[in-house]
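explain this chain.
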Amino acid sequence: MPVISVEIGSMTKGSKTELIRRLTEVAVEITNIPQSAFTVVIHELPDENIGVGGETVECIKQRLGR
């Protein structure tokens, strides 16, 4: 059973649903493995626990007004 694992910052429930659907679709197209065999796991991390360029994602989002 193939497992797709994603580590990502905070997401809405709708965004997670769409990500799971689309990752599964693409994996099926590429591998020809049935959709029912795939498991997708989202490891959602708080924005203050992710740093990019020496700055937390939380600070970056605040600076960008998101």
User: Anything to note?
Assistant: Residues 13-31 form the longest helix (19 residues). The mean pLDDT is 96. The longest strand covers residues 3-8.
